[in-house]
Amino acid sequence: MNSPDLLRWLGAAAAVAAYAGLCAGIWWRERRRAAAAAADAASLAGPVAAAAAPTLVLHASQTGQAEELAWQTARWLHAGGQPVRVLALNALDAATLAAAPQAFFIASTYGEGDAPDGASVFVDQVMAAAPRSLAALRYALLALGDRQYEQFCGFGRRLDAWLQGSGAQPLFERIEADNLAPAALADWRRRLRPEAGDAQAGDDDTPADFAPWRLVSRTLLNPGSQGGPVFELGFMPPRGPDPHWEPGDLAQIRLDSDPTRPRDYSIASTVRDGELQLIVRQERHPDGRLGAASGLLTATLTLGDTVALRLRRHRSFRLEDNAHRPLILIGNGTGVAGLRAHLRERAATGISSNWLVFGERQAAHDFLCRDELSAWHASGVLARLDMVFSRDQPERRYVQHQLLRAADELQAWLHRDAAIYVCGSLQGMAAGVDAALRQIAGEATMLELQRTGRYRRDVY
């Protein structure tokens, strides 16, 4: 073998070794996370030989808030001496629920009264099935909602009615929390453990506090667009320990004018990027006023100003067990934020089995993150890139139409064990994409994808 061939061979071998090392690192990280979660669950359940059957703590979550509250509830109950088992509603079957002596439900509502993704399988397979007697079950329910929606706590109320209709007996009246109102959450804790009085849960249950993050960059991404201006924003944290987040997580912004309703934004960057990036569309009301949060971020703040921000885990949109699977990423508008964070992670770890289907108005003005996406496609990080521009032809075309055109390819990716991530608008896009996926893959397949965490959505 001559010298050039030897050098090429050594270079290829080094690249393969580096890629194998990255994969091993991801596998080890996910294994450690799974082991920690299992240990946490085992500690709450108590000794195997415990005489008391564990109390179920069940969560129905869309953005992860209900799940966080479920773990807080479990630790609070465990501190009072109860063995506990935490489950997503999608992981619960009718027999397990019927055999449980006691259950605590934390249920969010999605959109106008719908079940969140974390409960969709339970709704289809348990609530919609022939009723099973739950006469032995005693339960309590914390319903999470937002009074801006007409169907406030709609799913929580429907779940409560179904439980009582099946014979279950409430331990106390349903508690409804508007935007995680502190008074409602305090009432929930008091009723869980009356003997604990007004004591709070442990420090591990306290969410991260808001901190002043400094705006360091703001770039208009869609000059000349027919739609509202879209900006990429860069923030740096205050001095102290380095912040940590994972692709899929959220940044929560607190407004001085409305401190009880923090706004969630998908994080568009990874920790290794060196700054937290958001992609925000400037909203304007019919009377000309800017939206409170989007106006602050895109117009009122000047470079160097700070905003009250905290990081929030969004486990239902993280990669987790999908880290090594092919990814089908679907979205529109500012939904590019959450999808871009995943793609940056995949680019950094050398995983190229990624397919992006993304929609906006016009290619000339609304091809958000054009240079980055095009470079990923050229380099192979994106095995396939489908950009859909609704107004570049007489008939409107949207991402769901492209999915239907690529139905055979989508089926092939699913047969390769691909996971689907959807990020963007709840109205129109998310419903249209869901209908197209069900038409292509079938209801049974989509239920299985939801049950196994291979269909995840961050929609708003």
Would you write up a description of this structure?
Strands 1, 2, 3, 4, 5 and 6 form a six-stranded parallel β-sheet that branches. This protein has a six-stranded antiparallel β-sheet with strand order 10-9-12-7-8-11. It is α/β, with parallel strands linked by helices. Strand 4, helix 5 and strand 5 form a beta-alpha-beta unit. The model is unreliable at 10-43, 46-51 and 199-206 (pLDDT under 50). Helix content is 38%, strand content 23%. Helix 11 (399-405) packs parallel to helix 13 (426-441) and helix 13 crosses helix 14 (443-451).
Number of strands: 17
Query: What is the CA-CA span between the terminal residues?
Result: 59 Å
Q: Identify the overall geometry.
A: globular
Rounded average pLDDT = 88
Rg over alpha carbons? 23 Å
Please give the share of residues in helix: 25-40%
Structural class: alpha/beta
| Count of separate DSSP helical elements | 14
Largest sheet: 6 strands, parallel
The multimeric state of the shown protein is single chain
Strand share of the residues? Answer: 15-25%
